[in-house]
Design goal:
By secondary structure, this protein is mainly beta. It folds into two domains: 130 residues, no CATH class; 261 residues, no CATH class. 11% of the residues lie in helices and 43% in strands. It contains three helices and 27 strands. The strands form six sheets. Strands 4, 5, 8, 11, 12, 13, 18, 19, 20, 21, 22 and 23 form a twelve-stranded antiparallel sheet that branches. A four-stranded antiparallel sheet has the order 3-27-26-25. Strand 11 and strand 12 form a beta hairpin. Helix 2 packs antiparallel against helix 3. The radius of gyration is 29 Å and the shape is globular.
């Protein structure tokens, strides 16, 4: 022993896997004859003395968990590619007695998607809204039991910040009465995904869809989204009295079957629905008369099969399914704003106009989690547990030709595959499975060699 030579009356066998190269072994000198955890004379202090094997194991596991959280941050930044159907990773951890910390997941910045028709009297601004999502565990409602981690209703709270998006159809300046922004139609974040807002209203209501903005949709060729093609054919005018003004366009839509539907009118105040898509026009440009005419429009395409409905005081609805137990709370503000409202363009808006700040979606039912089950959030995320601590996982779908069916149950029992610690789908090992099996080893229910084999299988992809 470096620094304390001699026979100290103890020894151990170095495992086979560590005999192939030079290893540094750090030991803590404990004298069994001098009372509990008494340090041997002359040995080096290593901070606080551990309380036997249970504390040493717990410290090692805590270090592994922290390391894996760092690894997850690296994975997010390099956008790891894989041919697996899913990647499941741990992105947040807490113990049953210290779950009060908030962990941020997806963050991004978005602007409004304006309809720019007949805006000559408006003084439009389009500030950036910095959005983020989080999952917050309420520590006061979580406890460890003999059967796992018990969470009361309200213990799990999903939070998404909208950063003060405008609610009124026309957001007016208090001094000039000019319109500075319109009701928000840009992106928001929900459960790790981006959605376009189609309707926002007071007292706190949002309808949003997955979709895409197609810019430069011309009359020369089709632009595509979801297998559907879109072409701008001609301008549409509205007239009144002795004047006419630009109000939209007639477009053609090519279905995935190749069938083309023409003379579809979309206006600044009238969208068009076809199959599971809603077509909305944002802008239109054209070359004046006397030249070869080229039309170019900007279309916002909503996928109606993905609709998310958030209404204050009601249960969340996604893709036509009511998410039982998940209650929505939307928070809107009007003048005077709190210190968090730092968007300069909105600082002088007229009274009694609302900006939507955030949404909290809380799970209102009690649940006990352990190694055999997990709690699905309404989409994307899962709450997992090893029986003493909690983790948050996110499933990334990847490109694949295989059709995967998932269950709508909020808890699922997992069955072992041939490799210890591997869970269905077999041979597709996730970081979540590695974490779970490391915890099982710490609890004395898994073999270290089996843990190493699982880690190696995961690392090899």
């Amino acid at each position: 022993m470096i620094g304390s030579p001699g026979d100290h009356g103890f020894s151990w066998t170095i495992p086979e896997e560590y005999r192939k190269h030079l290893q540094d072994i750090l030991s803590h000198g404990i004298s069994s004859a001098a009372g509990s955890n008494s340090k041997l004379t002359g040995t080096h202090a290593i901070g606080t003395k551990p309380n036997g094997d249970s504390q040493i194991s717990a410290d090692v596991i805590d270090l592994i968990k922290k390391t894996l959280i760092v690894l997850w941050e690296i994975i997010k930044r390099v956008k790891m590619k894989t041919n697996k159907k899913f990647i499941m990773v741990i992105i947040g951890l807490c113990t049953a007695v210290s779950c009060g910390a908030q962990v941020d997941y997806k963050t991004d910045s978005y602007a409004n998607a304006h309809r720019v028709f007949n805006t000559s009297d408006d003084r439009l601004q389009n500030p950036t809204h910095h959005m983020t999502e989080s999952i917050l565990f309420d520590q006061s409602k979580i406890s460890a039991t003999g059967s796992g981690v018990y969470m009361q209703g309200g213990a799990v709270n999903y939070y998404t910040s909208f950063d003060y998006i405008p609610v009124p159809k026309r957001l007016l300046d208090a001094t000039t009465q000019n319109c500075v922004d319109y009701a928000y139609r840009g992106k928001i974040i929900l459960f790790g995904e981006e959605y376009y807002v189609r309707e926002v209203a007071y007292p706190s209501y949002i309808s949003a869809y997955k979709g895409m903005i197609l810019d430069n949709v011309s009359n020369k060729s089709f632009a595509y989204y979801g297998g559907y093609g879109f072409r701008t054919d001609e301008i549409v005018l509205d007239c009144g009295g002795e004047s006419c003004w630009l109000s939209g366009a007639n477009i053609s839509v090519r279905k995935p079957t190749g069938q083309i539907f023409s003379n579809i009118t979309v206006k600044n105040y009238a969208d068009y629905a076809i199959d599971n898509l809603i077509i909305s026009i944002n802008a239109l440009a054209y070359v004046p008369k006397g030249r070869p005419i080229e039309l170019v429009s900007s279309l916002l395409i909503y996928n109606t099969s993905t609709e998310a409905v958030l209404e204050n005081g009601y249960t969340l609805e996604m893709a036509g399914i009511v998410k039982t137990g998940w209650m929505v709370s939307l928070f809107a503000q009007k003048q005077p704003f709190d210190a968090g409202m730092d968007i300069a363009e909105y600082a002088n808006i007229a009274p009694n106009q609302y900006l939507l700040k955030n949404a909290t979606i809380s799970y209102t039912r009690p649940v006990t989690l352990n190694m055999s089950n997990y709690l699905n959030l309404p989409a994307g995320y899962k709450i997992v547990s090893d029986g003493t601590s909690l983790g948050v996982t996110y499933i990334y779908s990847t490109t694949t030709t295989t059709t995967t069916t998932t269950t709508s149950s909020t808890t699922t029992t997992l069955t072992d595959c041939e490799l210890n610690g591997d869970l269905p789908p077999c041979a597709e090992i996730s970081l979540s499975e590695v974490i779970t099996y490391i915890n099982a080893w710490a609890a004395g229910t898994a073999n270290l060699n089996a843990v190493i084999a699982l880690i190696n299988a995961w690392a090899s992809g």
